[in-house]
Amino acid sequence: MRFATLEYGNGSAAAIDFVTHYQLTPFEDLASLLRGVGGDLQKTADLTLEVYIPKEEARYLPGVTTPSKIICLGLNYYDHVKEMGHDTVSYPTLFAKFPSTLTGPYDDIEIPSVSDAVDWEVELGVVVGKPARNVTEDQAKFSVAGFVVANDVSMRDFQRRTSQFLQGKIFERSTPVGPELVTPDEVDYAKDLIIECYVDDEKVQSSRTSKMVTSVSEAISYISRITTLEPGDLILTGTPSGVGAGRTPPVFLHHGQVLRSYIEGVGELRNRFIKAST
User: Fold this and answer.
1) Degrees (nearest 5) of the Cα angle 17, 22, 27?
2) Which of 106, 154, 185, 204 is the most core-located residue (most Cβ within 10 A)?
3) DSSP 82-106
4) pTM greater than 0.85 (yes/no)
5) Computed over its alpha carbons, how large is the radius of gyration of the chain?
6) Within 10 Å of residue 238's Cβ, how many Cβ atoms?
7) Where in the chain are all domains bearing CATH 3.90.850.10?
8) If you write DSSP's letter for every residue of 253-272 in order, what string do you get?
9) What's the fold here for domain 70-275?
10) Separation of alpha carbons 270 and 10, rounded Å
11) Angle at CA 108, nearest 5°, toward 144 and 200?
12) Tens-digit pLDDT profile for residues 259-272
C-alpha cells in the first residue's frame, strides 16, 4: 500500500494511493492517521471519505507533518564514513531534527543568506507505525509503518562550527520528505534498494541500502532503548558517499539547481534551490 499527505481545502489530509487517484481519510497527515489506527494501515480502508483527488491534481506535503520526534543517523554508510575522514564508529551517531525542518517532496528550498555551504544527503526515511520501547532487532520490524525518501540538506558551515551536528541540520523547511509512504511488503523492508541523488542531471550519489553500517532494525532497537518511538515518528538512516563536502574541492548547491533524490521502489523527490532575498 502507498499513502500520501496532500493539501486539501485550507489544510491537509492523509490519503490512500489508488494508482490513478487518491482517496482521502479524516486524518490531517500520516502521523495522525497512524496514531488513529494504532499503526495498522489495513484499517484505513474502513475510514476513507468519499473524496477523490486525481493524481495530476495532487499537491504533496511531507508525508508526516506532525511527528513527535525526528531521529537521524549520521555516518551510517561505510563509504561516507571514509569520505568524511572519520573512523568507523562503535555506536550509531544520532542527532535530532524538528518538524519545522520538513518540507514537501516538490517544494522549492531556500538557500539561506547566512550559509555558503548547502549540501545534499539522500536518505531512506523510516516512519514508525507502532510504539517501540526496548525492542529487539527481531521485534523492530513490526514497528515500521513504511518508508519514504528524504534528503538531509545540510548547511556544512554551520554544522562544522562545533562538534555537534545540530545547527547545520535544522534550518527551517530544508528537509524534503515524501512523496509517499510505501509499506514494507512493497519493498522487502528496504533491505537492498538502490539509493541515488542527482544535482540537475549529474548523478552525485549512488549506493544500496544494504551498505548501511546500522540497519533499519538495528537502528530502531538501539533508539528504542533510549526513548520510546511513537506512531508517526521519523527516522532518517544516513547517506552514502558522494556529498559535496566530501569532494576536492568541495561543491555546494547554488540558486536554480534542482536536487533529485531517488530510492528504488519508494519514489523520488525534486526540489529546486532558490537563494533567499534576506
Assistant:
1) 95
2) 154
3) HHTT-PPPSS-EEEEE-GGGEE-TT
4) yes
5) 18
6) 24
7) 70-275
8) --TT-EEEEEETTTEEEEEE
9) Fumarylacetoacetate hydrolase; domain 2 (3.90.850)
10) 24
11) 90
12) 999 999 999 999 99
